[in-house]
Please model this.
Amino acid sequence: MTSVQPHQKARALKSSSRRPAKELCSECGLCDTYYIHYVKSACAFLNQQIADLEEQAHGRSRDLEQPNELYFGVHQSMIAARKQEPIAGAQWTGIVSSIAIAMLNQGWVEGVVCVQNTAVDRFQPQPIIAHTPAEILAARVNKPTLSPNLSVLEQIEQSGMKRLLVIGVGCQIQALRAVEKQLGLEKLYVLGTPCVDNVTRAGLQKFLDTTSRSPETVVYYEFMQDFRVHFKHEDGSTETVPFFGLKTNQLKDVFAPSCMSCFDYVNSLADLVVGYMGAPFGWQWIVVRNSTGQEMLNLVQDQLETQPVTSKGDRHNAVQQSIPAYDKGVTLPMWAAKLMGVAIERIGPKGLEYARFSIDSHFTRNYLYVKRQHPEKLDQHVPEFAKRIVSQYKLPD
Model:
């Protein structure tokens, strides 16, 4: 357990609503608790320490000479999977919810940190510690806005819980791992999702208004492997918009500065990661990082249909061409965007190569952002693996 004195000292900082990372704050929630005492060492945007925390979480840091580890972090295995019987209303088939429910029902954990939405806004996140399957199911579907998941950390210590599952994204999990030993837990399980390009609630509204035909009825959306944004609407219909038809010139400023400065797309410090970007369309990409992650996956293995991950195509030209296009805010007419989308879907990168395409595209963009907006942070803030990935491309000044 953490000693009392640092917590008391930190309460004064908490009340002042300070955000030491300033404009780079990802609103992970750590600064809303008395664990703000540790923020200068824990915050992903004040002290980038992925390699050290990989060692802590997995027993070693990633092998930069191993191509898959360079991109996807420490892992024991990767598979593509989907539930044989999907959960109604889940964004995908409900693998994340199923693992959390199984861990709770079998007594592995006493609570699950997850994110519901507020009663008045489906996209406004409301972090909770779930104690029932119903509370977990109420958190299904991603909330594509900055979410203070770690704001519940005080409740964990005060409740006396000793075994906990936390579901979160990279910046949240890096801060969590940094203060893990202070939480007084006997066992912490971490189930991660890949994350890129979150927005404030106002930024999300601008994206919806600019992109969707019916922004007020969107239930959820995702940037998918077919190079289209898929919007799910209240009536069950799906709307798709090609990546290349997005109004980039209007949307460049909606993404949070923290997301524009992030290099942990794949959630390197989770025990188990469930996403989509390395899997075929309609499947989920599962990355088992350590033995704890394998134990978590084993709980639902008999509920899943699985297949090996595959990789096809070459991303490099597409990434290189996307760098100046994004930088200049190029927006194609919709007819041209649709044609380009069809062509790239047929001949473009797929499987793990699509995942590398997505990582390369965002890392080059984010490297330029940090270089231009925070040049004093560039060398320390960008991890070595990201520097190697970015070095494959020619960047503008």
The two ends are 48 Å apart (CA to CA).
